[in-house]
Amino acid sequence: MTDRTQNFSDSSADDPLVLVAALYRFTPLADYETLQLPLQDRMRENGLRGSLLLAAEGINGTISGRPPQLRGFVEWLRRLEHAGHRPFEATDVKWSGCDELPFRRARVRLKKEIVTMGVEGIDPLQSVGTYVDPEDWNALVDDPDVVLIDTRNDYEVEIGTFAGAVNPKTDTFREFPEYVKENLDPQQHSKVAMFCTGGIRCEKSTAYLKECGFSEVYHLRGGILNYLEKVSPEESRWQGECFVFDSRVSVNHDLQAGQYSLCHGCGWPVTAEMRADAKYEHGVACPRCADEMSDEQRRRRRERQRQIDQQRLQSQDADAQRGSRSLPI
Question: What is the CATH number of domain 130-240?
């Protein structure tokens, strides 16, 4: 097995212009609302952009910025004391790099769940599947007795997945429990392996299967992003690109920005070929949804895109006036 680890967590002469950190941590958070402003203020002080979610069950999000500032924020987060302990000390982080900031603003939002499944009582801290490291994943999925499930949504699966994986064809993660009830049986499916982008959805999906009586449940530690980082393309079972929830839209096997953009009309990934189609209009519609769009919807989306473009220019002007070395957005 070839080790492809890019240790973006440490400073390097090969640092990318922009560093991206996808992070999560399931941990009980009493009075989690009181953490919202300190986190948001710290992000803005360091020029970071992205989104963090806070709930009573923990933290989740993806943030970006200049490498020194982002690393410093993650270290500060891990040392942060709350309710007499450091709840984020063991926060899981997946690092990647890009040339432009993939977010327009910094925000910290309060939620009921940090990843929404909608099933009461599912607690990954109490019951969870068996973690499988990327280096051991191929051997597991090559087992003919293993049912391999992609827990992501349909639009994510379309641009890339593991060879042989089952697509549940869900529009949201809330639909996953219903898929399990209708398609999986603890008596028939003795071994179930699951994966998602960064690992967080599988924390809940495996916990849910354990509650449903499945005995052997596995999930990919650190998700697809960790697998792409650790496993060489020559040995990989991954096919295509990996959808990410920022302006990069997708990353390839080297964790660099992929070929896809996002249609703001239907929310599905768009290829270069689709962007060349006469029905494609940036920020408005793609060939998938153009014929279903009313004139009023088209007008509203054109206005929204005009406002987005205007905000981007204003942000660039503000960075220039502050005299800082502004990052492209």
Answer: 3.40.250.10
